[in-house]
Design brief:
This protein is of the alpha/beta class. Helices cover 48% and strands 12% of the residues. It contains 9 helices and 6 strands; from the N terminus they run E-H-H-H-H-H-E-H-E-H-H-E-H-E-E. The protein is globular, with a radius of gyration of 18 Å.
Length: 227
């Protein structure tokens, strides 16, 4: 990998600890809305539902508004908890507003960014909502590490669509040959990069079995083996 000059990172679940910060946001909302549900039970149901809706969103099959509302509605339905649509809409808004206020990072995030920053130009490519992602980067104090921040919303399509990667590479004044993508999503980050011939490192914290031979790490500091 001696030719690599540009390192593109995903944000959620890769550098920014989405699960922990999301749980803390819901905890605040449950207290404010006086929701009588065990938070752990809610999250156990919500996480896979949210994952499935994000897959549909990546595939352009649902809108941003539907994603934000239906993932909550389906979770409350599964748990047979009666709640009005108006309250769900309020929770949806509060969740987006509260989420950037919690800024736990994945273990090793600062250390690996410090290590890489002296050697490469670092960038972000994210499918997350533009208005929220910028706040996450600022409030977690890691925005300073990145030269280019590309949100799929600004491109009009989402990873793994090749247009997102092409756009990011052009914005960074990089090339496919001197760039590498690092992310936790095998579909969005690894296969998306592969589709344009770009190298990748799969942040496989959950040690998912994949169909392709791919450079893989289970902790961020292991990236130093490759870069």
């Amino acid at each position: 990998m001696n030719n690599i000059k540009h390192v593109f990172f995903d944000l959620d679940h890769t550098l920014w600890d989405f699960d922990k910060n999301s749980g803390l946001s819901f905890q605040q909302i449950f207290e404010e809305q006086n929701i009588k549900l065990a938070l752990d039970s809610f999250l156990d149901a919500y996480v896979p539902i949210n994952f499935s809706y994000w897959k549909l969103y990546r595939e352009e099959k649902i809108s941003k508004a539907d994603l934000r509302f239906k993932r909550l509605k389906d979770t409350f339905d599964v748990l047979e908890y009666e709640i009005s649509k108006d309250v769900i809409h309020q929770i949806s808004e509060d969740y987006i507003n509260y989420l950037p206020n919690y800024n736990h990072l994945i273990d090793g995030a600062i250390e690996i960014l410090d290590y890489l920053k002296s050697k490469y130009e670092l960038h972000i490519i994210t499918n997350g909502f533009k208005e929220v992602q910028n706040l996450k980067l600022e409030k977690s104090k890691i925005k300073k590490y990145f030269n280019i921040i590309v949100s799929s919303e600004s491109v009009g399509v989402k990873k793994p669509n090749p247009r997102v990667f092409d756009f990011a590479i052009k914005e960074a004044k990089a090339t496919i040959e001197n760039s590498i993508m690092i992310g936790d999503s095998y579909e969005a980050d690894v296969l998306g990069a592969k589709a344009i011939g770009m190298q990748s490192i799969f942040f496989n914290e959950k040690e998912i079995i994949t169909n392709l031979e791919v450079k893989s790490v289970s902790s961020l500091l292991e990236i130093r083996q490759f870069l």
